[in-house]
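Handout, section 4.2: multi-component inputs.
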Amino acid sequence: MKKDNLTNNRESKDIKLIEDGCITIIAGPCAIESLKQLDIIAKKVKECGLSFLRGGAYKPRTSPYSFQGLEHEGLEYLKEIGSKYNLRTVTEVTDAEKVDEIAKYTDVLQIGTRNMSNFALLKKVGKVAHEKNKKVILKRGWASTIKEWLLSAEYVTSRGGCEVVLCERGIRTFETYTRFTLDLSAVPVIKKLSKLPIIIDPSHATGQSDLVIPMCRAAIAVGADGLIVEIHHNPSEALCDGQQALDPKQTSEMLHQINKISKVFGKKIR
Ligand SMILES: [Mn+2]
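Output:
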């Protein structure tokens, strides 16, 4: 697809990441693996009635020998598929020098757990998000306190202002059965200390697909404004984080359950 098409055929209407009375569910693969893979998964996201597609192009991996993402090529696929299905896109920024480039291809800039204290990156993301009207998801550092997390958010919001959403994604404790320990009490604490919305990432917190739906339910019950969930059309063949990805059937089941729980709180999913 030509670059002009990629930049021009989006609906100009701005939509917020979080809206009052709604639960925002962001879904998609951990990593963008190919145009076809992203197309299949995005189609599912659209069929589920959701508005936001996630997908990593630059992947910060614990091991340098793991798949590092398709990088620039992945950004092009994300933009193309976002346009095709009219989905807003979410992707991670890992490096201050890449923020301008990535902002041309995505609606939401995600700052990952490893970069929550990368202040040069936070300042750059805040500036670019303000100038280009991008939204920001700031994940909690896995060894960071809530107060440190809120101060990191201020690095972003103080560069002119933009929509910033916090994301609790698990912290490191002595427990090794789950990948991290999901700190659900962070939700009411954030609600007490801050006006920023907060979403939950049950995929990275638990690291196991069978634990994702129960923690999604708990996240809505505790008052989270949304979820970011890794899904894949064929988790056993995923190049990244397949063990925690929901397959299409589990994705439908998750939405079915979250829809029911959201109604209890007078909210609808989007
Ligand atoms: Mn992942």
